[in-house]
Design a protein that fits this description.
By secondary structure, the protein is α/β, with parallel strands linked by helices. The chain has one domain (about 10-190): Rossmann fold. About 25% of the residues lie in helices and about 20% in strands. The chain is built from five helices and seven strands. The chain has helices at about 35-40, 70-85, 100, 120-135, 160-170; strands at about 25-30, 50-55, 90-95, 110-115, 135-145, 180, 185-190. A seven-stranded mixed beta sheet has the order 3-2-1-4-5-7-6, sandwiched between helices. The radius of gyration is 16 Å and the shape is globular. It starts with about 25 loop residues before the first strand and ends with a strand.
Length: about 190
């Protein structure tokens, strides 16, 4: 596939923690951008034809997230172009909306893997994690991206949102399975 856009860490980085299977999965990605990671999941963990892949992204400017200000229309166009060229696009469900409004629409205990890569400010990371957790299956895996992302303001670093979730949900996750690999944190749901 001739991908339009930058490529960052992809699902290939997960292989040392999440085993590949031939079983169908339900996957949710919060923060899709141009879709490269979404497609890498479709080509690896979600290869089974009955797998379902969901991606949530507003693809619009908003006051609390200036990183891509005035670029969202072109990012969304690039995503649609990439999606149209992707050979297995029938299993990808792109949802243009805000995660706090879209996540509650899914049934509980639905997803095998949830990847959080949306707004990197700690309050949004915590909100995405809390809303997503009940949608994750028992023994499902939640992945936080950019754990070491820093802002000029120390209080707005990604680590604070992830750490708040880990403290608040310490009795509902396997503490011994909390792993950090390549600036991504993996959490497995216990109950």
């Amino acid at each position: 596939m001739n991908f339009e856009g930058n490529t960052y860490r992809t699902a290939v980085n997960w292989n040392s923690y999440i085993k590949l299977t031939n079983e169908p999965i339900n996957y949710l990605e919060i923060g899709v951008n141009k879709g490269y990671n979404l497609f890498s999941v479709a080509d690896s963990y979600a290869k089974h034809p009955d797998s379902n892949i969901y991606g949530i992204d507003p693809w619009e400017d908003y006051e609390d997230y200036n990183e891509y200000k005035t670029k969202q229309d072109s990012i969304y166009s690039a995503f649609l172009n990439n999606l149209s060229k992707y050979p297995h696009n029938n299993k990808i469900n792109a949802i243009r909306g805000y995660s706090h409004m879209e996540i509650p629409r899914f049934e509980d205990n639905f997803f095998d893997i949830i990847y959080i890569d949306g707004n990197h400010n700690p309050e949004y990371i915590l909100e995405d994690a809390v809303l997503s957790f009940r949608k994750l299956k028992v023994n499902g895996i939640m992945i936080f991206d950019d754990y070491d992302w820093t802002n000029t303001d120390e209080e707005h670093n990604t680590i604070h949102g992830v750490e708040a979730f880990l403290r608040g949900y310490q009795n509902r996750i396997y503490k011994e399975r909390v792993v950090s690999i390549n600036s991504q944190v993996f959490v497995t749901r216990k109950n």
